[in-house]
Specification:
Blueprint: E1 5-15, H1 20-29, E2 33-44, E3 54-56, H2 58-70, E4 77-80, H3 86-99, E5 105-108, E6 113-114, E7 117-118, H4 126-134, E8 139-140, H5 144-150, H6 162-176, E9 179-185, E10 191-198, E11 201-208, H7 217-230, H8 235-255, H9 270-277
Parallel strand pairs: 1-2, 1-4, 4-5, 5-8, 8-9
Antiparallel strand pairs: 2-3, 6-7, 9-10, 10-11
Helix pairs in contact: 1-7, 2-3, 3-4, 7-8
Bound molecules: 3-hydroxy-5-(hydroxymethyl)-2-methylisonicotinaldehyde.
Length: 278
């Protein structure tokens, strides 16, 4: 079988292990070629650091895509994450339409916020813009903040009832037309997992949670999910693999007492991911 190829469209946060600095190694570990379109270059991510640099690359997105198109490059997947501005949403939609063919899997992680708040730099009308990108996707990977804000609703604190989770995921699937992998699911304290909606079927995969929040775990999860999907796992199996990998990364990092802003030690867990993908 020829090697699979993904186009990953996220920022590069130079320090802090998120976006492209986790997508590239995680998807590469799955033996999948990872081409990148950086949306911005920052010195660090915006979560908990002050004084970070931000080089906007809006003007480069479409020229990169057009060059690839002129080289007749084909993509098995397109995986988008953090976008630096509302304008970039439209450009990424154009990029997807330029690069995809009938076999390209489109995974959109609508990276915008967490714990009921938008990340620094995003205005309150960004979620409705991001919703338009989700409508281009086969699979979207929101957390509860992103899901609620895209539906124009208040964020609710966990734990959640099954009824709330299933209602939220169904409405998001109906609005976007995409399969949904909802992250940060917990029905009881000390639980964490994901819920998946596909063609009317809902699947919950929940495991025990460490009492810690590390930056970049949403990107670790979505990258592992993308790697698993392109390794021909079902979306249900891919979600389970991504939950187990993310939880393992958190456990490993906690044992080392890492700074929450510095992200997780996913590097030490890549072998476990590779085994899970076999
Ligand atoms: O992990 C999400 C993310 C990605 N990229 C940048 C961020 C964040 C979250 O804060 O700031 C630049």
């Amino acid at each position: 079988m020829p090697q699979k190829r993904v186009a990953a469209i996220h920022d590069i946060s130079g320090f802090g292990k998120c976006s492209l600095t986790v997508a590239l190694p995680i998807i590469s570990a799955a033996k999948i070629e990872t081409a990148v379109i950086p949306t911005a270059v920052l010195s660090t991510h915006t979560g908990g650091f002050t004084g970070y640099t931000f080089r906007d690359l809006t003007e480069d997105i479409l020229p990169i895509a057009k060059h690839w198109k002129s080289e007749n490059l084909k993509f098995d997947g397109i995986y988008t994450g953090y976008l630096g501005s509302k304008e970039q949403v439209g450009l990424v939609k154009e990029t997807i339409n330029l690069l995809k063919d009938e076999n390209t899997l489109i995974v959109v992680d609508p990276v915008m916020g967490d714990h009921g708040r938008l990340y620094a730099g995003f205005s309150s009308d960004f979620p409705k813009e991001m919703l338009t990108l989700c409508k281009e996707a086969h699979i979207i990977v929101p957390n509860f903040t992103e899901a609620a804000f895209m539906l124009g609703e208040e964020y609710l604190e966990p734990p959640y009832t099954k009824e709330y989770v299933e209602n939220l995921i169904k409405r998001l699937a109906a609005t976007t037309g995409a399969q949904v992998v909802l992250t940060g699911v917990c029905f009881k304290k000390n639980e964490i997992g994901a819920s998946v909606y596909k063609n009317g079927e809902i699947f919950h995969y929940i495991t025990n949670r460490e009492d810690a929040v590390f930056h970049g775990t949403g990107d670790v999860f979505a990258s592992a999910l993308t790697a698993a999907l392109l390794s021909d796992k079902t979306v249900f199996d891919a979600a389970k693999i991504a939950v187990d990998f993310t939880v393992l990364c958190i456990k490993k990092t906690l044992a080392e007492n890492g700074d929450r802003r510095y992200g997780v030690n996913f590097e030490s867990c890549l072998f476990d991911l590779i085994k899970a993908l076999e």
